[in-house]
Amino acid sequence: MPEVTHNPVTPLPRGSGIREVARLAGVSIATVSRVFNDAELVNPETRQRVLERAATLGYEPSSLGRNLVRGRSDLLGLIVPNVSFPLYGEMISGIEDVLGQRGMSVLLASSHDEAASELLAAQHLLRHTVDGGIVVNSQFDAALPAPRSMNWIYVSPEHVKFPNRVELDNGAGGRLAARELLRVGRRHLAYIGAPGRESQDRERGFTDELCQAGLSYRRAGGDYSELSGTWAAEELLDNGAALDAIFVAGDLMAAGVLRALHRRGLRMPEDVAVVGFDDSPLAALLYPRLTSIRQPAYAMGAAAAELSLRLIAGLSAEAESVVFLPELVRRESTGPP
Q1: What is the pLDDT of residue 72?
Q2: Most C-beta atoms within 10 A of its C-beta, which of 27, 70, 130, 328?
Q3: pLDDT the model gives residue 121
Q4: Do 232 and 255 belong to one domain?
Q5: Are 326 and 173 in contact (CB under 8 A)?
Q6: What DSSP designation does 39 have?
Q7: What whole-number distance in Å separates Cα of residue 117 and Cα of residue 277?
């Protein structure tokens, strides 16, 4: 019977360990580890030999083990109220694009705008040893129960005492809405708001601008849903008072407002001008197309990711707050763009 010999480069079963790679490459286990973790510390010829032997064996180092050695997971936790809301989708895109350039990924969780759910989501992310975290519209009035090494960034939190925040100047957005409605000659105005600090700030700016013009306004409440916008608009119309303009705290509610106005046979903007908020993709699809206050969601997400990366890298020792300015996007619901 002929003698059987084994070629050292004959493929072995996938998953062969680091010891076999080291034996075939003629190096120590520590050298193989350095090739996959700190490759610049290894002689190029040695590194190439190790990589070739590893490829032959189908060896892939455990990402978990590698991250334990490095003390990093390359994961950033992200908590949003509702992943289906278009505005949050834009923010997530901005976050993912920045992290992708650094070889990091997002671990996503939902809070449903509830403090208890937010706490559970944060605890879940921490169990996955994320390197840092971003919370959108946090409902807590105190810091999340994270270890001291955790780097939380808050995007438009309900309370302003969090140290590291990315914000929109919502008051400025309310002023822009009032100026637009005043520009087109409206004098019988209303505001449809929703619970929370963002809506309150938008109303505050709206109120300040109208006060300077010597005008008051009527008010109704919703919850950012389309149906609540319809109900709020019908409530205003049923009161019988003159009404020629409505500022709405969110585009989805504004869609409900337009529906209610259509049902009453009212024309936009001839009878009633409408301004929404966020400038979500929906705004350009409505009839008439909706004038809206643009919130730069993608840029805000990217800024939150950049700030989180600086904290993780220890490049930012002091609290930082990044504030974005809104922009009016004029469409047919208030007049020719």
Answers
A1: 60
A2: 130
A3: 83
A4: yes
A5: yes
A6: G
A7: 26
Q: Per-residue pLDDT for 147 more than 90?
A: no
**CATH number of the domain where residue 267 is located:** 3.40.50.2300
Give the total number of structural domains in the chain: 3
Q: Which residue has the tokens 């001291």?
A: 148
- What integer is the mean pLDDT of 221-244? 93
Alpha-carbon distances of 95 from 78, 107, 134, 298, 300, rounded to whole Å: 9, 11, 9, 8, 9
Residue where the block lists tokens 């109900």: 231
Amino acid at residue number 103: G
**165-168 vs 321-324, strand pairing mode:** parallel
Contact between 257 and 288 (Cβ < 8 Å): no
The whole-angstrom separation of Cα 148 and Cα 146 is 6
308: CB partners within 8 A, 6+ apart: 76, 132, 133, 134, 151, 153
Kind and range of the H or E run holding 148? none
Residue 275: beta bridge partners? 247, 291
pLDDT grade, residue 315 (50/70/90)?
A: low
Q: Parallel, antiparallel, or unpaired: how do β-strands 291-294 and 327-329 relate?
A: antiparallel
What is the phi-psi region of residue 58: left when phi exceeds 0, alpha when psi lies from -120 to 50, beta otherwise?
left
Q: Note the residue count of the chain.
A: 337
